[in-house]
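FAQ: What does the model actually see?

It sees only this:
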Amino acid sequence: MEKVCIGNAMLAGDAAFQTKASTGGGIITGIAAADVLSETINDHFKHKRPLEMYNKDVGSLNRELMIHWKLRKYFNSLSYEQMNKLIEQAKKFGIEDFLNKEGEMDFISGFIGKLFKNPKFILMLPQLVKALAF
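And it is asked to produce this:
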């Protein structure tokens, strides 16, 4: 959702479509959005900052959610066989141990950065780049 604040009407969480397309979850992202919204409202009353700044303030969360949406769209485009091949390839590179150590379900951009930096996963970069560009 592009605008989550118009005038003095503001949305957060499920009402603002701030849920993860990858899992359907939204408790953590909803809490994060509510935290940003409360700071925006606080700044409005204390410093006369426009409420519409919430649209900008929540931008980093919305970018995180866009990554989830792109990954979901990419995975949905794969056939059953392609998905199995991707999972098997990831297992060969040790993705399970990596996910246990570095995985982050809710704020995935940091996890993806760590994946890009790990030499074990260099051969998987084309698939990851394709997924994020999808």
